[in-house]
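Data availability (excerpt). The following record was deposited with the supplementary files.
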Amino acid sequence: MRYLYGIALIATSLLAQKKKDPAPAPASAPSPAQKVYAQAVAYGDLLTQIYALHWRLATEGPSFGLRDTLAQTYFQAGLYRQAIAVADELLKEQPRNADLAELKALAYFYLQDTKNALEAYEKLYEITQSPLHLYQVITLQFNLQRYGECQANIDKLLANPEADRLTVRISTPDGQTQEVPLRAAAWNVRGVLYRLQKEPEKARTSFEEALKIAPTFLLAKGNLEDLNKEVQPSTPSKK
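Predicted structure:
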């Protein structure tokens, strides 16, 4: 059933590309912990960076900058639960810090904790009002079968003019990725929803809208082809 792949979003986030510098060291000569951290950064040794950051926190005090860098480093090392723990602590101090909210949302996403990922992305969208974050909310609501909320948020996304200039990378059934306009991706999800709800004409219209925006959109093409095969009456064989 190809159409089930039609809403998979590869988490697209500037966060994955960011690397924050830690809080600046004092003007005096660097401490052993600072030297260890700098050396670990030079060699790309994330685990030693984490150790050195803890050492610095113990000796320099729990500054926001050092803890923020620790959360980022945990995330880069794939230690997502630890990254969430630090992010939660910092979000109590800065509830509208978009970078930390995004880190937390992505960490839950990579842990495949859909329920908590949805809650985190909903809070992130409250902060940023970004259509990209709303699209991730939509895909997670779909996975949790919260179809009514999913449809309402698709309406909201399609009504947002900012969506016109944004794109997302979507996974294909054969493991490839394709960058498509966000608006086309939203129409594709809508088509999948209508297909699941046994409304083939609305599903067809939605897939066709996606293809008007992005004629080479592979998943929308495949979803439309599968839908047409499903609803096409079988032709009697000739004798």
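Summary of structural features: Confidence is low (pLDDT under 50) at residues 1-17.
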